[in-house]
Design brief:
The protein is of the alpha/beta class. The protein has 2 domains: 235 residues, Spore Coat Polysaccharide Biosynthesis Protein SpsA, Chain A (Alpha-Beta Complex), CATH 3.90.550.10; 150 residues, no CATH class. It is built from 14 helices and 11 strands.
Length: 427
C-alpha cells in the first residue's frame, strides 16, 4: 500500500484489467469545515505528515459545509479531497464526509487546529485491534489554558457526559471530544440521523446501544487558531445534547419517573384513605390525598409513554430491542391492556355509585365530606386511569401496524473517484 502527498486530490490507484481503480485506503482523516481558512492548511499538513511518517495508505478529506472564505480551494491546494455538503450543520458535514470517505477507518477532527493531527497513532492502533469507535479524552490528555471555556470544562461537558454514562451504561469520560476514530462500515450501519451539534452524542449513544466496542485514548486540546467566534452556541447546543440523551432513553425520561410517581401515589392513597395521618406537627389530610391521586395518574402516564416509545424506537431501529423487557412488552397486547383498563374502570364506577348512594341516603342533602370525598376522588382517579390506559393501548396498537418500509440506499457500494457531493441518509 502507498500514500500520496503532493498537490491535488490524494488518491491511491492501481491498474486492474487495463482500467484505473482506487486501491484499498486504510485511513481517511476527515475534517468538517465551515470557514476555516485561517487554520485549515496547517491541519491538512499535519494530517499528511502523519500519513507519511506512519506509512499508512490514506487520504485527507474535507467535508465543506458552505464555506465562503475560500476554504475549499485551500484544501485542494494542500492536496486534500473536498466533498461539499449542502445540508447545514455539524452532523450533516460529518455524515457527508463519512459517506464520501474511502478509508476502512475514519478519524475525524475539527479543522480549527485545536487537536494534534500528527499524533493519531493511538487511534489507529485501537481501530486495528478491533475497536468500532475510539474516542479522545481531553480531560485525561490535557487541556491548554484558554482552550475550553470554564463552564464547558467544569459544568456542561462533565454533566452531559455523566448523564450519558448513567443512561447508556458506557464508560466514556468525554462525550463531546471532536477527535475520534471509527470503523467506517460499522458506523455507517448505525444510520445516524442528527445533523446538528448533538451528532457528537448520537454517535456515542447509538454505538453503546448497539453494543459496539468503544475505546478511549487521552488526547490534548490546544487553543484553536480561529480569529472568529466558535460555531458552538453553549446554551442552545447544550440543550440539544441533553434533549437527545433524554429522547434516546425512555427509561430515564418516562419509566423511572413514572414508577416513582405511581409508587408515591399508591403509598399516599393507601395511607390516607382510612383517615388523616399526623406526623409530628404536620397533618396530612384530604389535600395530600388529592396530590397522591394525581401522582398516580401522572405516574401511569409516564409508564405508558415509556412502553409506547420503547416499542416505537425499537421498531424503527433507533434503539435495539431489549432482551430484558421483550417478554414484558410482548405480553402487553391491546386486548390485555383493555381488560386491565376495564377492571380498573369498573372499580372506579362502583366507587362512584357508592358515593351517589350515600348522598341519596341523606335525601341529597348535606354530607360528611371528610370520608366521602376520599372515596369520590379515588373513584374518579380510577375511571380516569382506566380511560388513559385504554387510549394508550389503542395508540400503541396503531403505532405497531405493519408498514412496508422503503428500501434503504446501498451504502457499501465502492465510491466513485469523482464523487464530490454526498447524499445524507433520509435526505
Amino acid at each position: 500500500m502507498h500514500s500520496c502527498y503532493g498537490k491535488g486530490p490524494c488518491l491511491v490507484f492501481a491498474v486492474v484489467s487495463g482500467e484505473m481503480s482506487v486501491m484499498s485506503i486504510e485511513l481517511t482523516i476527515l475534517m468538517p469545515c465551515l470557514n476555516e481558512a485561517k487554520t485549515l492548511a496547517n491541519c491538512i499538513r499535519k494530517s499528511k505528515r502523519f500519513l507519511s511518517e506512519s506509512g499508512i495508505a490514506g487520504e485527507v478529506l474535507v467535508a465543506d459545509n458552505g464555506s465562503t472564505d475560500g476554504s475549499q480551494q485551500i484544501a485542494r491546494d494542500e492536496g486534500a479531497r473536498v466533498v461539499e455538503v449542502a445540508d447545514a450543520g455539524y452532523g450533516a458535514a460529518v455524515l457527508g464526509g463519512i459517506q464520501a470517505a474511502r478509508g476502512r477507518y475514519v478519524i475525524m477532527a475539527d479543522a480549527d487546529d485545536s487537536y494534534d493531527l500528527s499524533a493519531l497513532a493511538p487511534f489507529v492502533e485501537r481501530l486495528r485491534d478491533g475497536a468500532d469507535l475510539v474516542m479522545g479524552n481531553r480531560f485525561k490528555g490535557g487541556i491548554a489554558k484558554g482552550a475550553m471555556p470554564f463552564l464547558h470544562r467544569y459544568v456542561g461537558n462533565p454533566i452531559l457526559s455523566g448523564i450519558g454514562r448513567l443512561f447508556f451504561g458506557t464508560t466514556i469520560g468525554d462525550f463531546h471530544c471532536g477527535l475520534r476514530g471509527m470503523n467506517r462500515k460499522r458506523i455507517k450501519s448505525l444510520n445516524l440521523r442528527t445533523i446538528g451539534m448533538e451528532f457528537a452524542s448520537e454517535m456515542v449513544v447509538r454505538a453503546a446501544l448497539a453494543k459496539y466496542r468503544i475505546d478511549e485514548v487521552p488526547t490534548t486540546l490546544n487553543r484553536d487558531g480561529r480569529e472568529r467566534a466558535s460555531h458552538l452556541r453553549p446554551w442552545r447546543d447544550g440543550w440539544r445534547h441533553l434533549r437527545f440523551l433524554l429522547m434516546y432513553s425512555p427509561k430515564w425520561l418516562f419509566l423511572y419517573p413514572g414508577i416513582f410517581l405511581l409508587g408515591f401515589g399508591l403509598f399516599g392513597t393507601v395511607l390516607l384513605l382510612p383517615s388523616p395521618v399526623r406526623v409530628g406537627n404536620v397533618n396530612f389530610d384530604i389535600h395530600t390525598f388529592v396530590v397522591a391521586c394525581i401522582s398516580i395518574l401522572i405516574g401511569l402516564q409516564g409508564i405508558s409513554f415509556a412502553v409506547v416509545s420503547r416499542r416505537f424506537a425499537a421498531a424503527r431501529g433507533f434503539i435495539p430491542p431489549s432482551a430484558r423487557y421483550t417478554n414484558i412488552l410482548n405480553a402487553m397486547t391491546l386486548e390485555r391492556l383493555l381488560l386491565v383498563a376495564l377492571v380498573i374502570g369498573a372499580l372506579g364506577v362502583c366507587g362512584l355509585f357508592w358515593c351517589v348512594a350515600k348522598w341519596s341516603s341523606t335525601g341529597f342533602g348535606a354530607l360528611q365530606y371528610a370520608s366521602l370525598l376520599r372515596v369520590l376522588v379515588l373513584s374518579l382517579t380510577a375511571v380516569a386511569a382506566s380511560l388513559q390506559l385504554a387510549l394508550t393501548a389503542f395508540l400503541a396498537g396503531i403505532m405497531e401496524i405493519p408498514v412496508q418500509m422503503p428500501h434503504e440506499l446501498q451504502v457499501d457500494a465502492p465510491p466513485r473517484a469523482t464523487t464530490t457531493v454526498t447524499k445524507l441518509p433520509g435526505a
